[in-house]
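Its record is retained below.
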Amino acid sequence: MRFELFIAARHLRSRRRQAGARGHKVVGLITAISILGVAAGVASLIIALAITNGMRRDLQQRLVGATAHVELMRTTGEGIHDWRPLMARLAQVPHVQAVAPGLYGQVLISRGARSGGALIKGIVPADELKIGNLLQSVNEGSYSDLAPNAEPAPDTPPIVIGNELAITLGAGVGDTLLVTSPQGELTPVGLIPRYQRFRVAGIFASGFYQYDSSFAFMRLADAQRLFSEPDLISVMSFRIDDLYAAPQVGHDIQQAATEFAGKGFAVTNWMEQNRELFRALKLEQVVTFIVLALIVVVAALNILSALTMMVMEKVRDIAVMMSFGVEPAQVRRIFLLQGLLISSIGTAIGLVVGYAASLAGSHFRFIHLDASVYSIDYLPFAPRFTDALLVAAVSLGVAILATLYPSTSAANVLPAEALRYE
């Protein structure tokens, strides 16, 4: 292959030395356009795949970090009674690292004329910190007042809210909020909503809009009083050692709960809760790859044009080589290698540009997003080595297909016919 590669490289270099002829200029321009087209397609693919990988990675990290891997609840909706011995039993299930009780409830939070809906979770902070990191993202105030042994003013229990919710309410640390529960008290005049004033002890900023705009924490005992659910929880949250084993571990947890406390339990995991989101991201990645791969196809057509014109230009040279004993298969390989060189140069340039742009975007985060729409406030990049292999394989494969026709045409040149009038 050394001979074929030498001739292929010499053909690419010779056009620069013979740039005085119009035909050489045209072929050289088409070759340069082909290289730039391949480079643009490869760079676009690398950047697009880095963005989709980054979106998937960041969303998964934030979702898994903010929520439990597995959750256990009652199918009847009545909550879990006598939850302490059950929690102690389920903590012994294999692969379970931590378990935390929780009581969820939808409420209306208001401050003066401002109000907003929120999902309240009553927690035990020491347990909650083991299964999620939302409390660790408190950047104003502190969550320490949520500890069971903390004793703030009895008429204003503590509450920790998301920063977007705090902006909606115009609230800061130390302000008083009115929390109204739809689960009210039945009186002679009808159902009266239950309400309680809370003091803002902390404000968290997870960077995940869904939580920052509509999530709040309070002590488990305070939530039980607010919702009139004495010593009752609605969910047990679990963190396991392998988050991708969540379905199997969830099944084991449900089976253990059934054996200990009877039927009526159901489990869910982070994969089930976010299946549609990750499915949409995967579909977006596939569609983006197909659309941007068309740029490489267009560049391959330019390679086809360049090689076809080169064969027409080099008919005399091909005939001379074949008259000296060069076989048609060798001629075919010369033009195959020439197209492969063009594609390889463009692919290398595209990979360098694509990875440089992706790494710069990942480091500087210069593209900002609307967190209320995209759930995160910047465009993440996560370039992967496997993507480079895939893109390079597609680029080189398409280029090889584009060289089949001109290389075959070159191999079919008849020396006698080509040199008849020379």
